[in-house]
Every structure is written in structure tokens, then in C-alpha cells.
């Protein structure tokens, strides 16, 4: 939807967030973002933050972490004005690292079609909850559930999705992140849960269950830049496994040139190693070479295998529209 822009970067960011992201997903965030966009006093505070930290999702989550009332704009605004130094401090220290295990429902059809065993390496893994595609249960549309797990991932599909009848064999897994979140750290997990929008109760519950699973089967998470440490971590994958490098909602945080360099790095790693695939789950137009379809509707993400667009998808793995 086209949103009226004023040329005021921060104000326009909040307006776009209200209309394009929060509407239909969170009435509370839509009300807060709409309120902020028309509130010069609050905007002046937010503008004190460095530009990337002015992100609506970050400011809202920090306020909730610190106890802001979750409801209408006026009481939230009053709370924010009274607690701004603490909110600003939290925003400076934290980043949005939403981890959505349901994105495994997008990975699964591709993983199941790749000859295993598989070594799985995620760049931008957050707490690593997308590194367990073989540990979750799945229901695509009304099909029978595949897999046995406390964590059920449901996904609505259209088009000729190559739905798997078995889970992939994953023999090695690792994640890379600038700031891995630890599932055994209460503060990290409180932050992860707070990043889920207020009304998304089901999503929060699913993430809690996935965190429990990850605590039982800890995965290797390496702190570092995805480009700088990709080869080093990939080198630990067993030679006789097919390496799958994937990223979801991550390279959007890189500049355009960095994204292209990252794509080149993955392709040259694949060419040198052989038996390596690259899966990208990013907003349409983000991954270099993966062209947006432009007809996505609510399917704002693009799923690509080795640089080829195969499907459009809901950003949280809730839907998968396979292309013919
Ligand atoms: C929005 S989260 C997505 C997490 C996970 N991929 C998922 O789909 O649930 C993006 C993650 O990418 C990480 N990240 C951003 N830039 C990165 C980089 N250059 N190298 C490694 N990780 C990065 C962030 O720290 C964050 O945890």
C-alpha cells in the first residue's frame, strides 16, 4: 500500500511501519506507530538515537521489556516520556533479533529434496531456533502432520509445493551471528520473547517450546560476522555431508554491496567444496540475483535455492506459494 510520505525520515518510518507492517498483525503497534508519527515531542526523543536504532520494532520492544503498558497510545506515550532514558539505553544496547522457527516450514521442502546427509549452517542464526528443521512437526494445509514434536509448524500453501514425506537427515549443524542469543540465558530469552509483537500469543508460545527443545539439544552458535567467518565455520562440516548454507531475514541488515559480496562468497564456497547448496529466505528484492515477483500480496519473502527463486512466502513461514 502506498503511504503518504512527508520527507521526515523518522516520522515516515513510523507511518510506513503502522500501515505496511503492523496493520493486521498488531493493533497495539499500529496505534503506537501512528501515534508517534503525529507526535513531535516523542519524535524528537527518538531522533536522539542513531538512525538504525530509531527502528519502531526496536523502540517498542525496549519499552515493553521495561514495563510499558500494552494498550492505547496515550498511556504508552505518558510512560515513554517518563522512562525515555532507560528505553534509549536499552535501544542502544540491543538489536532486533527475532528468531522464527516456523521459517523451517519454508526450508523443509528444499532440504527434503537435497541428497543427504545434510550439514546445516545458518548465517544470522539469532538463538539458533531455525537449526532444528528435523526436530519439529509440520502441517501443510490440512495434510497429515509430518514428524513428532512439541513444536508444530503450520503453513498454508499454494502451487506445486514438493511436500516432503520424510524429515531430512541432519548430521551437523551450526549457526553464525554477530550476537548469538543463548537459550540458557534468561535475559536473552526474555528479549527474544519480547520481540514477538504483543497480540501474537500463539507465536510466542511456539517460540517458547522451540527454546525448550534447543535447551535439550544445544547447537553450536559462533559469534562473528557472517562474511568474515563463513569459510572457517563451514570447514568444520563433515566432508561426506551435503553442506546447506542458509539465511533468513538476515542479509537485509547488510548494505547492497555487502549483500552482493556475501552472495559471491557463498557461491565460491559452493564451487570449491562441491556438494553445497545455498538457501535464501529474505524479503523480495533483498538477495542479489533473486528477482522479486512483484505479485506477492502478503507473501513478502522470497525463497531461493542456489540463487533461483522457487517460491514466495509469508515472512514468518506462515505461507508458501510455490512458483510453477
Ligand atoms: C531478524 S534475525 C533472524 C534470525 C533467524 N535467521 C530467523 O529467521 O529466525 C537476524 C539476525 O541476523 C544477525 N546478523 C545481522 N547481520 C549479521 C552479520 N553480518 N553476520 C552475522 N549475523 C548477522 C542479527 O544479529 C540477528 O540475530
Q: What does this protein structure show overall?
A:
Helix 1 packs antiparallel against helix 2 and helix 4 (about 55-65) crosses helix 5. This protein has a ten-stranded mixed β-sheet with strand order 2-3-10-9-8-7-6-1-4-5, with helices on both faces. Strand 9 and strand 10 (about 320) form a beta hairpin. It has two domains: about 10-95, no CATH class; about 100-320, 3-Layer(aba) Sandwich (Rossmann fold), CATH 3.40.50. About 40% of the residues lie in helices and about 20% in strands. The two termini are about 25 Å apart. The longest helix has 21 residues, at about 75-95. The chain contains ten helices and ten strands. The structure holds S-adenosylmethionine. S-adenosylmethionine binds near residues 103, 125, 179 and 253.
Which helices and strands, and how do they pair?
Blueprint: H1 9-22, H2 27-37, H3 40-46, H4 56-65, H5 73-93, H6 104-113, E1 118-123, E2 137-140, E3 152-158, E4 170-177, H7 186-194, H8 201-216, E5 220-223, H9 226-234, E6 242-248, H10 256-273, E7 276-283, E8 301-305, E9 308-313, E10 319-322
Parallel strand pairs: 1-4, 1-6, 2-3, 3-10, 4-5, 6-7
Antiparallel strand pairs: 7-8, 8-9, 9-10
Helix pairs in contact: 1-2, 2-5, 4-5, 9-10
The structure holds S-adenosylmethionine.
The number of E-state strands comes to 10
Number of helices: 10
What share of the residues does DSSP label as strand, in percent?
Answer: 15-25%
Strand order of the largest sheet: 2-3-10-9-8-7-6-1-4-5
Structural class by SSE content: alpha/beta
N- to C-terminal separation?
26 Å
The largest pleated sheet is described as: 10 strands, mixed
- The total tally of domains equals 2
Return the string of H and E elements: HHHHHHEEEEHHEHEHEEEE
Instruction: State the helicity in percent bands.
Output: 25-40%
Shape: globular
Whole-angstrom Rg: 20 Å
CATH architecture of the largest domain: 3-Layer(aba) Sandwich
Q: How confident overall, as mean pLDDT?
A: 95
InterPro entries: UCP012608
Organism: Agromyces rhizosphaerae
Pfam families: DUF2332 (PF10094)
Protein name: DUF2332 family protein
Amino acid at each position: 500500500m502506498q503511504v503518504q510520505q512527508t520527507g521526515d525520515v523518522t516520522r515516515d518510518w513510523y507511518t510506513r511501519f503502522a500501515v505496511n507492517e503492523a496493520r493486521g498483525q498488531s493493533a497495539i503497534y499500529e496505534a503506537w506507530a501512528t501515534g508517534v508519527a503525529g507526535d513531535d515531542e516523542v519524535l524528537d526523543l527518538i531522533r536522539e538515537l542513531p538512525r538504525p536504532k530509531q527502528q519502531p520494532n526496536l523502540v517498542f520492544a525496549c519499552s515493553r521489556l521495561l514495563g510499558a503498558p500494552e494498550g492505547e497510545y496515550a498511556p504508552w506515550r505518558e510512560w515513554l516520556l517518563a522512562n525515555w532514558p532507560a528505553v534509549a539505553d536499552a535501544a542502544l544496547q540491543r538489536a532486533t533479533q527475532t528468531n522464527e522457527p516456523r521459517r523451517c516450514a519454508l526450508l523443509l521442502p528444499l532440504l527434503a529434496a537435497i541428497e543427504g546427509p545434510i550439514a546445516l549452517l545458518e548465517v544470522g542464526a539469532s538463538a539458533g531456533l531455525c537449526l532444528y528443521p528435523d526436530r519439529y512437526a509440520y502441517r501443510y494445509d490440512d495434510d497429515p502432520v509430518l514428524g513428532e514434536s512439541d513444536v508444530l509448524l503450520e503453513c498454508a500453501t499454494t502451487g506445486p509445493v514438493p511436500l516432503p514425506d520424510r524429515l531430512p537427515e541432519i548430521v551437523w549443524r551450526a549457526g553464525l551471528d554477530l550476537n548469538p542469543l543463548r537459550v540458557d540465558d534468561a535475559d536473552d530469552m526474555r528479549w527474544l520473547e519480547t520481540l514477538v509483537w504483543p497480540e501474537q500469543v500463539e507465536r510466542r508460545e511456539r517460540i517458547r517450546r522451540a527454546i525448550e527443545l534447543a535447551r535439550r539439544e544445544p547447537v553450536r552458535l559462533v559469534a562473528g560476522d557472517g562474511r568474515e567467518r563463513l569459510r572457517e565455520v563451514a570447514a568444520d562440516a563433515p566432508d561426506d555431508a551435503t553442506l546447506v548454507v542458509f539465511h533468513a531475514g538476515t542479509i537485509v541488515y547488510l548494505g547492497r554491496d555487502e549483500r552482493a559480496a556475501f552472495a559471491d562468497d557463498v557461491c565460491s564456497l559452493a564451487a570449491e567444496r562441491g556438494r553445497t547448496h545455498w538457501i535464501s529466505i529474505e524479503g523480495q528484492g533483498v538477495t542479489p540475483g533473486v528477482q522479486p515477483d512483484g505479485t506477492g500480496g502478503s507473501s513478502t519473502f522470497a525463497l531461493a535455492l542456489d540463487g533461483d527463486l522457487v517460491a514466495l512466502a509469508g515472512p514468518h513461514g506462515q505461507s508458501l506459494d510455490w512458483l510453477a
